[in-house]
Amino acid sequence: MKGIVLAGGSGTRLYPTTLGVCKQLLPLYDKPMIYYPLSVLMLAKIRDVLIISTPQDTPNFQRIFGKGEEFGMNLSFCVQDSPDGLAHGLILAEQFVGKSAFAYILGDNVFYGQGFSEMLQKAAQFAEQGSASIFSYRVKEPRHFGVVEFDKSGRVVRLEEKPQNPKSNFIATGLYFYPQSAIEIAKSLKPSARGELEITDVNNAFLRQGKLRNQALGRGFAWLDTGTHDSLLDAGSFVQTIELRQGQKVACLEEIAFHNGWIDKEMLLKRAKMLEKSGYGRYLREIVEMEL
Description:
Blueprint: E1 2-6, E2 27-28, E3 31-32, H1 35-43, E4 48-53, H2 58-65, E5 74-79, H3 86-92, H4 94-97, E6 102-106, E7 109-113, H5 116-128, E8 132-138, E9 146-150, E10 156-161, E11 170-178, H6 182-188, H7 199-208, E12 212-217, E13 221-225, H8 229-246, H9 253-259, H10 265-274, H11 279-291
Parallel strand pairs: 1-4, 1-6, 4-5, 8-12
Antiparallel strand pairs: 2-3, 6-11, 7-13, 8-11, 9-10
Helix pairs in contact: 3-6, 10-11
């Protein structure tokens, strides 16, 4: 099982903030935004990950993560020269994916909820067996997203990209699990009226094949899209509240890697020392102390 993080785009809704840096490198409370989607893949037990970004920002991601050794991972990087749609990222990842099933997540999505790891690993199993999975979530204003339409029995019957008259308040979040065949589906697509290769068209192709599963994120979950200034601020405040009240960090990559058995105490302490002047570094040291 492999993972892909799409961290490209121009971030025009966040201008002028993103004129000099991509939004996935912006701070979301106490860590870069990209930590959050990367943590989702780690919770799914995925160690081989490709980060797709722009020509100017790819070196920044490489500087932050290297090859992923400090997290017990194997990170690769790919340049997307122009934002040609979410499904275009699948085509760029063809060589990386090979014959594997994979997870695909947008670099500006934040997920939080009890039991999420189990849902992710279940979706991974479905992908290995040839079925795609979407993660649906209820929102107040669905017109800005890919809307999921259900029949009376609750079965998905259609997905529609940014409709003017949504058939439901449920949208497909920016997280997908696919069998390898999703690459060929993406390659067969034609650009939409927006001039992009739409991920919704990929999902509808699996739906027509009877191979699309819906993982519903209920009231106990939080999903945050950080594509605007207000939503970015809201997400940061949400993470701050959780961390300060519970004393546990959200999307701490080193912590997840340690609990996955990908790094040992020595590696965790080395990372803690490097970050010791921040609360993040002190938190890593506390993880080790609790294990002693």
